[in-house]
Amino acid sequence: MATQKMLTFVSTPREMPEKRAAAERSEDFHEIYREFAAAKAAEQSGRCSQCGVPYCQSHCPLHNNIPDWLRLTAEGRLQEAYQVSQATNTFPEICGRICPQDRLCEGNCVIEQSGHGTVTIGAVEKYITDTAWDNGWVQPFAPAQERAESVGIIGAGPGGLAAADMLRKQGFQVTVYDRYDRAGGLMTYGIPGFKLEKDIVLRRNKWLADSGVEFVLNCNVGEDISFDAIRGKHDAVLIATGVYKTRDLDLDNADHGGIVRAIDYLTASNKVDFGDEVPDYEDGELNAKGKRVIVIGGGDTAMDCVRTAIRQGAQSVKCLYRRDRANMPGSQREVQNAEEEGVEFVWLSGPGSFVGHVTGDFAAAQEADVDGPVRTVRQIASVSIQKMRLGQPDVTGRQSPELIEGADYDEPADLVIKALGFEPEDLPKLWGVDGLEVTRWGTIKASFQTHMTSIPGVYAVGDIVRGASLVVWAIRDGREAADSIATFLTGDARIAAE
């Protein structure tokens, strides 16, 4: 009689892969979770209830066939499980590591709602794909037929790379342009290694290159090459730049030394992890070692900053957030990990102003000229913190923070990191493009069905359309846009546009 492999959630409790002790993991940038063993991955996959209407799948932006690859994993059919997993996702090993499963698939798991604890979907997804790489099941591909049409993709982040994968499989010639020296976008330079080790991203980049995708790196559109030149070289163009402009604070003394942007801080840390020389890290500007660090913000970027500062050897790390824990936009799993590692969260608090002091050595280095006076440069000394309370809900239903008068206090700080979210750059102005329409938020206007912009043959996906969002949404957008571009280049749509 065959043994029932599935629906074991009643007798088998939920287990995550072993998490390294906080004291150990705080000393390095390696991933904090260990790998599932084969038996444990099969056991946890068998907890799936194989729902007739799988809410995990419907709440995944990619609509991954999660119940199917869980069943195949429980049955030990791992190569088939990988094939099902990668059929809908260009980067399953990356999503398994960095997706906020607690807000998406796992948070909507039926057995989670019934009180049995969700299936560990993300950990199994990571295990399946890592096993596929280890066993050589992931190989460069060659399209069944090469096509003459070419597509230029601006931005080597998840949206751009997902589109490159799908277009190349259909035989199109694909060139990806990116401002950085390595492809991957924020997966490479924004997300720290303790969440996503960089060899995971680099091997995918190599896989795409070996499959015929051309990369043009260290290429800043608008400076090294014009947008019009890219349009002239390709039959279609996809804009997938992401959003890199940091939201700022309109506060007194916000230009003091020691107040830095999260993107600069995280990029420097990741470059150092690659072994690159980073002068701003070496001179201490983007290095938290020995400093009292305050991070302002409550999203996933803020969590990346506080946990990076801990690993760099900060004296103390505090995170200011103007709402309470329940209203934190970042992953609760990440908040818990940060607390375990020694981060202090200061809820219902925000910065009122920055207080600085003159540092003699720093000022002396800023001489205006040989005979002129020395310009005094102020360095951050403390943050004036304003206490908040939650007031009436706004139009979105979230309670708005209200200032508590007379409850301010000063918190000493040597490094302040602004993790307030990202906004789009003014691409039409930067690139000198006429006719590229944007929304009132500065994001590019694109069709939700086809992802085409106001310029025929030019498409846009990911954060530059949505605003700052998740990697998994960018992957979905990129794959959808690839289908639209293929239709445009091969069907009646192109003839109509011409």
UniProtKB/TrEMBL annotation:
Domain FAD/NAD(P)-binding: from-to ranges: 151-478
Keywords tagged on the record: 4Fe-4S, Iron, Iron-sulfur, Metal-binding, Oxidoreductase
Domain of life: Bacteria
Family annotation (NCBIfam families): gltD_gamma_fam
UniProt GO molecular function: 4 iron, 4 sulfur cluster binding; metal ion binding; oxidoreductase activity
Species the sequence originates in: Paracoccus gahaiensis
Domain Dihydroprymidine dehydrogenase: 26-136
Full protein name: NAD(P)-dependent oxidoreductase
